[in-house]
Amino acid sequence: MTKGIFILPHTKRRMNERGITPKMVELALNFGRRIHAPGTLFYFVGKRDMKKITCFSRDVDRLEGTTLVLDPGENVVITCFKNKNFLKSIRQKVQ
Fold first, then answer.
1. Which residues contact 73 (CB under 8 A, 6 or more apart)?
2. Which of 15, 70, 82, 86 could tie 41 with a disulfide, CB 3.0–4.6 Å?
3. What span, in angstroms and rounded, lies between the C-alpha atoms of 37 and 51?
């Protein structure tokens, strides 16, 4: 896992429910787009971001659309989910 990032028990439960592995979280943190919103930091892995990931594993195939929600001050992953259209919706909310 990436140093300095804490995953809440709630987040671990959501990861299990949604089929998001710790490796997918690590890849999202390392290669995903950072999107700042008031009081929240998102990491989103879109189709373009997939090209940056050179390791090919089972998780990479399912990585597109993975979104992490972090508390930016505490470096805590609050929750995670998958939504390939998330980037469009968050841009509308932030603007």
1. none
2. 70
3. 25
Q: How many CB atoms lie within 10 A of CB 19?
A: 10
DSSP 8-state code for residue 88? H
Residue 43 CA, chain-centre distance (Å), reads 4
Residue owning tokens 């993975």: 66
pLDDT digits over 27-84, tens only?
Answer: 999 899 999 888 889 999 988 888 777 665 666 778 899 999 999 888 899 999 999 8
Q: How far is CA 91 from CA 25, 30, 82, in A?
A: 22, 21, 16
- The reported pTM is 0.85
In angstroms, the CA 75 to CA 59 distance is 23
